Amino acid sequence: MLTRRIVTAGLGLSFMTHGVLAQEPAPATKPVESPEPVLILDASLDPDDRLTVEVTLNGVGPFQFIVDSGAGRSVLSETLANRLALAQGPDILVHGISGSIIARTAKVAQLMVGDARLSNVNLPVLPPERVGADGFLGVDILEGRNVIMDFRKRKLEVRRSRSPFDLVRLPREVSVMADDRFGRLTVADCRVAGARALAFVDSGGGVSIGNKALSRAIATRRRRHDDVRSAQLLTASGEVTVGEYRIAPSLTLGDLRMTNVPMAFADLHIFDVWGLNDRPALLLGVDILKLFSRVELDFGAGRVLFRIGGVTPPRVLSA
Questions:
Q1: CATH code reported for the domain at 171-305
Q2: Nearest CA-CA partner of 306 in 236, 235, 252
Q3: pTM
Q4: How far, in Å, CA of 241 to CA of 63, rounded?
Q5: CATH 2.40.70.10 matches 49-144
Q6: Beta-carbon contacts of residue 132 (< 8 Å; ≥ 6 apart)
Q7: What are the strands, taking DSSP E only, across 254-302?
Q8: 141/118 Cα distance (integer angstroms)
Q9: Which H or E run includes 81?
Q10: Topology match between the domains 49-144 and 171-305
Q11: For 214-243, how does the pLDDT look when each residue is reduced to its tens digit (9 = 90+)?
Q12: pLDDT tens-place string over residues 103-149
């Protein structure tokens, strides 16, 4: 079933007009099949899904930042950088999921969220439409931290990572081991429709996206034909990437298994940067994360904790 994050394009109503000559029967016409519409998937975060945390910048604030576990560096919106009249730093190359741009930086003496801080750094500055808030926190400030995304309470927290000895799991919680390969929180024990893949937790992405290598791996394991649709992915910057859309029959993360998971597939720029276009890989977006009432991204302990019991819980076969 398509969600409201998926907009159908190319659906024009087709009308057939018949010119009828007097006393002459209309010639038989062969029905013309309309081409299947292309799906347009908005890969940016829906405003309703944006959980923000309070951040201070050079002792001023608070400002609202999104936590983007798929970003290597924290970023400021152009609006905030101009408002605080931050001194400009050197231009740098910034990689996004679908491309790269040269961006200016701003000199920041101190950025703080809770007791985590960045000091004397040059942070990229991007247009507000690419950020969706005052800024976003990347993995540069999340090392050794536990990011708690409570979708039921619509609350986001950044705390110190907990020791494995301090962890107390509730009956409806599933802990999945993760590591920090490629500088991102990565679940190595992942299977999509039985195909092994690397899964990167992307709390700043609205749609879960696999690469074409994963799509091919799924196809070789499936005996029956799956319904695969052509799709275009729109990013926050307005860039368009051609891909496909399908319902994955299953998604397994460690001991957690879900069924009938909507997913997009495309050879994104970021997969190329990581050298993963030929190895099955997946970005786990908020469309999957928000199916749970609470998700903890513990960078220090190397784990992702899923709490089952959201308003619309996913179909979980085993946990």
A1: 2.40.70.10
A2: 252
A3: 0.76
A4: 32
A5: yes
A6: 44, 45, 47, 50, 66, 236
A7: 256-265, 281-284, 294-298
A8: 6
A9: helix 78-83
A10: yes
A11: 999 998 886 666 677 777 766 655 667 777
A12: 999 999 999 998 888 999 999 999 888 888 899 898 888 888 888 88
